[in-house]
Amino acid sequence: MLPEVGLEGQKKICSTSVLCIGAGGLGSPIAMYLAAAGIGKLGILDFDAVDESNLQRQLLHGTEDVGRFKTDSARDAIHSINPLVEVVPHRERITSANALDLIRPYDIVVDGTDNFPTRYLTNDACVLLKKPNVFGAIFKFEGQSSVFAPHLGGPCYRCLYPEPPPPGSVPSCGEAGVLGVLPGVIGCIQATEILKLAAGIGTTLLGRMLVYDALEMKFRELRLRRDPQCPICGEKPTITQLIDYDQFCGVKPKGEKTPMHPDEVSVQDMKLALDDCTLAIKVVDIREPSEYAAAHIPGVMFLPLSELQLRLDELDPNQTYYIHCRSGGRSMKLVQFLKQNGFKNVKSVAGGIHAWADEFDPVMPKV
Question: Is 264-360 assigned to CATH 3.40.50.2000?
Answer without folding.
Answer: no
